[in-house]
Specification:
Layout lengths: L1 E2 L8 E7 L9 E8 L5 E8 L3 E8 L7 E7 L2 E7 L3 E5 L4 E6 L4 E8 L8 E2 L7
Antiparallel strand pairs: 1-2, 2-3, 3-10, 4-9, 4-11, 5-8, 5-10, 6-7, 6-9
Length: about 130
């Protein structure tokens, strides 16, 4: 799946490996997102998945590249600075989004009762604090 655009610095390709249309599982979705060169944002505008949680594993990053992984409730966000080959868990109630100092790649896994990839609750930019 090709998403995003150069104007918003979020042009990326999403590969879906464990997905009902490709490989069925009980409660797991899994894939990989590759940001195009000169693109740094992923999952913006941010969102939550009320019926599933998500895990990110960042890799293929240079030694000095970092991803600022945003999470928390929309009115009280936090960030975690991620380096190459580090993972973070994003609970279902938490927003999740990331911006890197350079393009990056990550493996993602979602677990929960809902396997509809596009089922998400978008958060308006004005709600982020």
């Amino acid at each position: 799946v090709h998403l995003g655009d150069l104007e918003n610095s979020n042009k990326r390709t999403i590969f879906q490996y464990v997905h009902p249309a490709v490989c069925k599982s009980c409660q797991l979705l899994m894939g990989m997102t590759v940001l195009d060169p000169n693109n740094m944002w992923n999952t913006m505008p941010t969102h939550t998945h009320e019926r599933r949680m998500e895990v990110y594993f960042y890799f293929n990053m240079d030694e000095n590249t970092r991803v600022f992984h945003l999470m928390g409730q929309p009115h009280e966000t936090r960030h975690i600075v991620m380096a190459n080959e580090q993972a973070v868990i994003s609970p279902s109630w938490s927003i999740h989004s990331g911006v890197g100092t350079k393009n990056y790649t990550f493996i993602w896994g979602m677990a929960g009762e809902n396997q509809t990839f596009t089922d998400m609750d978008h958060i308006a930019m004005g709600q982020l604090r």
